[in-house]
C-alpha cells in the first residue's frame, strides 16, 4: 500500500527538522524502502539522527547506477562522476582499468558499464569496502584488499590504461568540519589525507608509472587549494599533469600522463 499524504508529510517534517536539505526526496526513498511500520520508523529515526541515507537504503546512485553501499563504507559523491566522464573520454577500446582506493567500487563499476569490454581491477585497504566492491564488480573483474599497489597482481604492471584513484584528500585539520554523516559514519582512512590532504595521493602518483601503459592515464580529484601541490606530486613522478577545474563543486580533477 502506498504511503498516505499524512504519513509522507510527517516524515518530511521530521527530516526537515533534523536538517535534511532534500527532505522530500529522502522521505520518498525511505518510504519506498519498506512498508513495515516498525522498520520504516527505524529508518526515519536513524536518518534524523544523522545516519547517511545511502547506508540506510543500501545503495547510492552514481552515474545512473545503483551502487551497493554497506554501513561503514565510503559513499561515492556525485561530483566524482566527473572523473568517470574524463576517463571514458580518453580510454581506448576494452581498456584495462585500475580503481585504487576503490571504496564501494563505484568508479570502476561506472566505467565498466560505460565502456564495453573494460576489465577492472580494484583495491582498497578496508575489508568492508573490498567486500562491498566485490558485489559491485563481479567476475571477470577483480577486487583485492591491501594498501594501494601492494595487493595487485604482477600481470597488471605496465598494462593499466586508466588508473582512477578516489584517494582521501581532506586535510586532517578539516575532518571535524565535515558533515556528521561523513565524519561519524565513514571510515577515517577514506577521508583523512594528512596535513595538507595529499599524503596518499603523493604515494599514488609516485607508484603510477610502474603500472600505467604507454598511453595510460592517472585521474584523481582534489580541492581547488590543493592544485599546486598535486601537480608538483605528479611531476615528481615523471608524469605530465592536466587540471580540469569544476567551479560548481569548488574542486578540480587531475589527469596525469607520461
Quick description:
The protein has 258 residues and is α/β, with parallel strands linked by helices. 36% of the residues lie in helices and 21% in strands. The protein has helices spanning 5-17, 23-33, 37-48, 53-57, 81-90, 106-114, 127-136, 180-183, 199-207, 227-236, and strands spanning 59-62, 65-68, 96-100, 119-124, 142-145, 160-165, 212-223, 240-246, 251-257.
Q: Key terms for this structure?
A:
alpha/beta, 258 residues, 10 helices, 9 strands, 7-stranded mixed sheet, two-stranded antiparallel ribbon, globular
Write the layout of secondary structure elements.
Blueprint lengths: L4 H13 L5 H11 L3 H12 L4 H5 L1 E4 L2 E4 L12 H10 L5 E5 L5 H9 L4 E6 L2 H10 L5 E4 L14 E6 L14 H4 L15 H9 L4 E12 L3 H10 L3 E7 L4 E7 L1
Parallel strand pairs: 3-4, 3-6, 4-5, 6-7
Antiparallel strand pairs: 1-2, 7-9, 8-9
Folded structure, characterized:
It is a single chain. The chain is built from ten helices and nine strands. The chain is α/β, with parallel strands linked by helices. A seven-stranded mixed sheet has the order 5-4-3-6-7-9-8, with helices on both faces. A two-stranded antiparallel sheet has the order 1-2. Strand 4, helix 7 and strand 5 form a beta-alpha-beta unit. Helix 1 (5-17) packs across helix 2 and helix 5 (81-90) crosses helix 6. The longest helix has 13 residues, at 5-17. It is globular. The mean pLDDT is 96.
Order of helices and strands: HHHHEEHEHEHEEHHEHEE
Largest sheet: 7 strands, mixed
How are the strands ordered across the major sheet?
5-4-3-6-7-9-8
Number of E-type strands: 9
Oligomer: single chain
By secondary-structure content and strand pairing, the structural class works out as: alpha/beta
What is the number of helices? 10
Radius of gyration: 19 Å
Low-pLDDT stretches: none
Provide mean pLDDT, rounded: 96
Shape: globular
How large is the share of residues in beta strands? 15-25%
Proportion of helical residues:
25-40%
The end-to-end distance, rounded to whole angstroms, is 58 Å
Amino acid at each position: 500500500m502506498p504511503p498516505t499524504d499524512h504519513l509522507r508529510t510527517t516524515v518530511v517534517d521530521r527530516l526537515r527538522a533534523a536538517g535534511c536539505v532534500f527532505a522530500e526526496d529522502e522521505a520518498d526513498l525511505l518510504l519506498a524502502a519498506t512498508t513495515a511500520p516498525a522498520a520504516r520508523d527505524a529508518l526515519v529515526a536513524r536518518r534524523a539522527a544523522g545516519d547517511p541515507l545511502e547506508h540506510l537504503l543500501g545503495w547510492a546512485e552514481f552515474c545512473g547506477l545503483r551502487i551497493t553501499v554497506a554501513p561503514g563504507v565510503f559513499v561515492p559523491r556525485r561530483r566524482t562522476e566527473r572523473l568517470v566522464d574524463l576517463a571514458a573520454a580518453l580510454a581506448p577500446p576494452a581498456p584495462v582499468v585500475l580503481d585504487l582506493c576503490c571504496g564501494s567500487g563505484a568508479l570502476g563499476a561506472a566505467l565498466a558499464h560505460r565502456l564495453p569490454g573494460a576489465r577492472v581491477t580494484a583495491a582498497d585497504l578496508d575489508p568492508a569496502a573490498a567486500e562491498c566492491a566485490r558485489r559491485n564488480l563481479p567476475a571477470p573483474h577483480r577486487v583485492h584488499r591491501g594498501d594501494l599497489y601492494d595487493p595487485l597482481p604482477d600481470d597488471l604492471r605496465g598494462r593499466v590504461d586508466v588508473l582512477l584513484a578516489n584517494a582521501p584528500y581532506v586535510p586532517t585539520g578539516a575532518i571535524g568540519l565535515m558533515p556528521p554523516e561523513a565524519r561519524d559514519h565513514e571510515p577515517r582512512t577514506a577521508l583523512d589525507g594528512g596535513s595538507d590532504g595529499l599524503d596518499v595521493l603523493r604515494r599514488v602518483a609516485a607508484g603510477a608509472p610502474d603500472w600505467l601503459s604507454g598511453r595510460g592515464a592517472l585521474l584523481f580529484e582534489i580541492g581547488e587549494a590543493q592544485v599546486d601541490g598535486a601537480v608538483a606530486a605528479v611531476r615528481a613522478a615523471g608524469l605530465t599533469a592536466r587540471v580540469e577545474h569544476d567551479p560548481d563543486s569548488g574542486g578540480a580533477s587531475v589527469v596525469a600522463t607520461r
